[in-house]
Amino acid sequence: MKKITLLIVLIIIVFSCKETKSENQKNQIEKKQKTNFVVTDSLLNQAVIYEANIRQYSKKGDFNSFTKDIPQLKKLGIKIIWLMPIYPISKVKRKATGDTFVEDIKNPEERKKYLGSPYAVANYTAINPDFGDKKDLQQLIETAHKNGMAVILDWVANHTGWDNPWIKEHPEFYTKNKKGEITDPLNPDGTSKGWQDVADLNYDNPELRKAMTQSMKYWIKNFNIDGFRCDVAGEVPVDFWKQAITELRQEKPLFMLAEAWEPELLKDHIFDACYGWESHFLLADIAKGKKNVKDFDAYIKKTDTMYEPDDIIMNFTANHDENSWKGTEAETFGKATETMEALTFMIPGMPLIYSGQEYGLNHRLKFFEKDSIPKTKGEKWQLYQKLGFLKNHYPALAGGKQKAKYQRISTTADDKILAFKREKNGKILYFVGNLSNENQKFNLDLKGLFTDKIQGKNITFETDKPVELKAWEYYILE
Predict the structure, then answer these.
(1) Mean pLDDT over residues 336-358, rounded?
(2) Which fold has domain 37-404?
(3) pTM score of the predicted model
């Protein structure tokens, strides 16, 4: 009987060891799967970034609807997916329209349609249930990684929603007025910025800094995300970002994008990239005839001295703010839209595609309500596919930390015609474009047989033979 008992015990031990070994192997495999994707300089050099507005991307407005399209987005050259805030949205002081709050609306059915601003975060370490759950988010991230794409989260460090747990648990984290009341973000003169749906955080408090850093670290450790796009980064102290990002990068390599232009945010490798606000507004002014190519030349010279060689500028013709509050691309750029879209890929930096641009989005997406983008592939999809291919595969368009050279090519109409070449490792691409609303005839310092990479036609240039371009016509030449 003792022998039988001993035999049973040995069998249990053997199988237990096998199960433990099997479980350990499974954990090692899962760990390997979660850590085999990292952001590299090579990825950043050839990357197109995609701003995913999950709420408006599909009729369901959930993670899964977006995840199934990731392999399609890969065809556009997307290497980085930026997810707009995925966190629960505060219900207290939830915005409806303009300065109206949902709680001001008496009709309960009318109230339901207002979902609030995703930038009024109710909990930094939770997921908006409208989008799905943790497994859905993990599936999105893993699908992106399998397709060679990084995923960055939109991070709102400057303020929280009014029902964020910190309001009650840590009121000392917030800015207060003379009465000791927590305030919304204020201008230097004490007036409101107009963001009454959020409460301003006070970075004089060292415990807030620790809590914010830990909240960011949560998403790296638990979801293997690859970085953050930091909302109104210039409103948060630079020394906080330096401390926090240094600590976060001890977990894994990260791509950090600042919604800001200030060069000091990129010094000492704090942020990798910033917004090309100046280039965006400049291109808009050129499209409206308010400025011309000479202003663009001055901008390029200015950025060369303003930023360090490994700083990345994100160039764009649309994003969620511009689209919802300022207008569509057609409203901003008119007939110059395609030319300006092409330029965001051709000039030094990283181009952005905002949800819907690839389908020719032609309306302002609602910000506080459910809306949706078109999903029919047409000319715009084909254009972005060609531009994305060039960005991914041509060293001459490297726009990351080891940028391709940019060299202006002189013409006889330098205030109307923008001509330049990008070069790296002996590979060259040229841009020649008419940035005016009138047909132009000019000579330029370019000679030989070239292929236009967008139209697929061959073009011969001779230095003594005039070139004609229609209003806003452009070439990308090899």
Answers:
(1) 98
(2) TIM Barrel (3.20.20)
(3) 0.92
